[in-house]
## 1
Amino acid sequence: MKTTKNLFMLLSLMLAITLAACSGNTGGNGPVNEGPGEDPAVTENTEDTPEEEEPPANEMDFDMGGRTIKVVSWWDMTIPDNNPDNIQRLENLEALKEKHNFDIEYIAIDYGEYQERVVASLMAGEPLGDIVRMGKAYMIPALTKQDLFWPVDEYTTNEQVFNQRITSMYSQYEGKGYGFSEGQTNLITGIFYNRTLMKNLGLKPLQEYVDEDNWNWDTFIQVAKEANQDTNNDSKLDTWGLAGHSLTEQALAANETDLVNGTEQNLDDPRVLEVFNFISRLATEQVGRPTEGGDWTEPGQFFRQGNTLMYAGAEYETSGLKQDMQDFDIGFVPFPKGPSASTYHAHEPAVQFLTLPKQTENPEQIMYIWEKINEIESIYDYPGQAGLETNFDNEDDIANARMAGDNMNIIDRNSFPSIPYYDMVDELLQGVSVSTVIEKYKSPIQAAIDEVYQ
């Protein structure tokens, strides 16, 4: 009897436990335990106490104590609310200001006095801002070698935000990058051409040379000569193929070389020899339209007259050219490929970018904020789309511009003020032999480099 009674009590207790488990926290809508072998108590505890989510690995948590970040440039870099991308940036900025307790001030300094004021402030150890726009020509190596800036390589790895060429190529000094930019587009330069004149002269479309991968210095000279015509039979040329022939910087970039290589003159480079031979041909074979004694704007003025086929210029000139040439269809192709080049290139003799002066405190926090401001989901298919589609209504022109800009090369002569660049080019254009020019200017160029580095 005692055993039977104990067994009965045990069964009653087990039944009570089972009923409690089935009815607890279910609201009478069914069992908590739906899977075979699950422990009801474990399942119930998991629902009541969810696991805490860890923040993303690239998130930083810090308080800037109300600090004002000053951003200095030669234009006002305040983010406008003029398109959906910029609206996202503004929203990011406001959220970051609240989270990290800071403010931001954009300081614009007139371009005419910018270099002098900024350099003076850096040399005095009192930079005008935490983020300062600098021109490479007067920063590297002259100021960088004095340890006036933070290297930024470790902060610019986000390819969706930072222009990788700025840090890894254009702002390098002794193996480190000192510049950064959230702007993913580079300067676009190339050859504007008059499609209307091209058709009237019965010339092969320039785009076909690009499509055939046959747009090079030989075909460029060939086309220019074909457009040098006497259309009214008065024994004088009245159409020309090329406005101007002083294209040395463009040719250096297009042949993937430069006058300077690190701390050494580079005139012994076979690619520079190819460039000088090309410039010499333009002059000695009278390829370009002769000057009428004008200044540096003369080639652009010639092109606007509508009787010159090609003009070497930059994309930002497009709207002005089209405004002044409304009766003509204007096209764009890259500068022709050099004989030693792997692709087409734009050129930039005055590249600039943002930097962090060495007095900027907590550079990792500043760069984090800049990254997060610009970490957006763009509505555009590619960088610079809005501007290119405004300037060009031809898909080939857009593709050519993108190809040139994506492969922009910089020319470093402006970093060495004493390089006798114009004297050297003038001798090439006057027909002095290439070998003579190279031998004459190797030593002066090396002296100009040494002046800056030593």
## 2
Amino acid sequence: MAASGTPLQLDLKAILRARLPRRVSRLVPGFAISLLEKLIRQDGLNRLLREAYPAEGSAFSASILRQLGITVEVKGLEKLEGRGRLIFASNHPLGGLDGITMVKILGETYGDDNIRVMVNDMLMNVEPLAGVFLPINKYGSQARRSAVLINEAFASDRHICVYPAGLVSRLSADGHIRDLQWQKSVVAKAIEFDRDIVPVRFEAQNTDRFYRLARLRKQLGIKINLEQALLPGEMFSQKGEHFRVVFGEPMTSASLRASGVSPAVLAERLRLRVYSV
């Protein structure tokens, strides 16, 4: 975490000391930390953060994309002009840059104060984006606080972007990159707070290395999500890429409520719809 008035800089060693019990962190050898720093491309990430400083929100996101030479093509957003209190439900192919890109698109369209993007609460440490992030925490007293913040956001007039899979897309048996099962809560919240859901298809993918590790880990029966450690470094594999983001026709809260099927079934229909918009 950065001190006030200075750029945020990642310090993996300090993060491990803060999150691990002292007796455990002392057992982690220095060479292992150095290897992890190289794996996540810590030096490169810190260069991006220094260059983007002091921008925040969509301006910060635009700086990151510009530094990486990434261009973005947006389709269908103009059809949503004048519609309020939308839920943007997107696939999650990249795990970092797709969120950053959505902050840029939605923030530049609606204004940073009028959007919230639901993320793992650990990402609240990314201070330049903390103002547009909505933290998800599932454990202990923080879970209760998180639930209150989430309900307040859904009750507000802000647009909300969600990633219902919760995890980054994986390589499916048919050779396509697809999200895993979508959580039914996206539909339940739409019905509860009378919001329409906009399916969003984000066209991009990580490197083959990421998907190979994910498949190997699953074959070996390892439950720890090892491939997640590759995601920070995966950002740099996207240098010079062109992203295409397609906004589909909304599923209205009225149609969801009148469907007569469960939120779980509707969430799966929504997931499939994303890949057809």
## 3
Amino acid sequence: MATTAKILDGRKLAADIKAKIASQVKSEKLNLGLGTILVGSDPSSHSYVAGKHRDCAEVGINSIRVELPESASESEILQAVAKLNSDPNCTGFIVQLPLPNGVNANRVLESIDPTKDADGLHPLNLGKLVLQQKAPLPCTPQAIHELVSQNGISWEGKNVVVLGRGTTVGRPLGLLLSGKGANATVTLTHSKTADLISHLSRAEIVIAALGKPHFLKREMVREGAVVIDVGLSRIGEKLVGDVDPSVYERVSAYSPVPGGVGPLTRAMLLRNVVELARKGVH
């Protein structure tokens, strides 16, 4: 059995990053505005967006909040995007996903001005990630990289298995971690992966990004591995991740849910806004 596992505390790291950003905003006299477009009444989405605006208030970034009803058409959403694209007070913005059924999310994301893409999900910016050119990075992959690195754990040369190939986490994370900088060897697994256990048996770092409560069990993880939990599901009143708590007895380090990747993802969004203001993507 592994020794007592280290808890990778995203809340503390996020607080440190936000304090640094607040100092930058003040000392550099940056006039920043983060916009959010929220469509519908999904409680989780409303909670996420409210958290982002609280973060903005903490660090001195102005908030521009656009809310549309569930019945909003794709055309109305595109109009809201166009308005923020042209708003000089908006440094960067996000469209909160998921969007209602019938709305083409890719078309909406493509309509964002790439130089205002605070989430790093515009096709142009994802293409720059492929080419390893400077661009805003997707927030959750950036948070995962930061959480591990800032806790003194190296990615270099490590066998990393990512559970899930979604466009917001799995795919861009694979690009980020296999690039020059992290230099990890990354395997993206998914519902059609044959013999998942054999991949996990070699994994020194496992990242679970499936959205399936307690999917990853103790016997699936190699002794002493590092496990990062990106999943977030609600069972009754309790928030749980993709990692079963039994895993914690076997690993050397893990990120908790809640309090791991989530708070850091929001801090990365603020960092992206600061970098957009500095024209770092041009």
## 4
Amino acid sequence: MTPAYDSFLTLLHRRHSCRAFLPDAVPGDTVTAILTAAQRVASWNNTQPWMLTITRPGETERLRGVMTQAAQAAPPGPDLPFPERYEGIYKERRSVCGWQLYDAVGVQKGDRAASARQGMENFRFFGAPHLAVVTSPADLGPYGAVDVGAYVMGFMLAAEALGVATIAQAALAPFADVLRRELDLPEDRLVVCGIAFGFEDRDHPANSYRTTRADLDEVVTWRG
């Protein structure tokens, strides 16, 4: 293999969903470098449909309070439909991932109060100093959202290369109307997800585990 491949594979293995951040702000030039790199992501017909609204620490703290309060009530609903169900291997993988987190932070099976408290960390952005809300034009429909998904991965890998931790947050999507109101997002854009980012709290137990990946023979079919 090549040094470039080795470096890329290292980034993929190092990147993980950070669930506890230090409060320190990420320097502006580092954020700009992440955005500059992510802007090179491929998109359908080079439409580059993503737009980001990024909060600095003071605004993040304000939004943290708003989202925590909003999460106490029933969410208005996402702009894009969530999965109808998880079945089979997808349900199994989801369950394993969830229990890895619960085991790491000491949530016992059946302790609904503890699991609810951990779930609320989503709306605190896990203590991150920054949140990027990523949107796509409504007119581009699913393909715009697919392009945004590629962008999110580019953003997270660029951040990892610069020592910045991230977590993509679909949990915020059902509160699209709240985010649209609080961040003055245009009505003609769909809220796809958030990306909380900052510096990882390496001592926090929520960051002590890593998920696995399926073997290639589970996801690849060869023909010819």
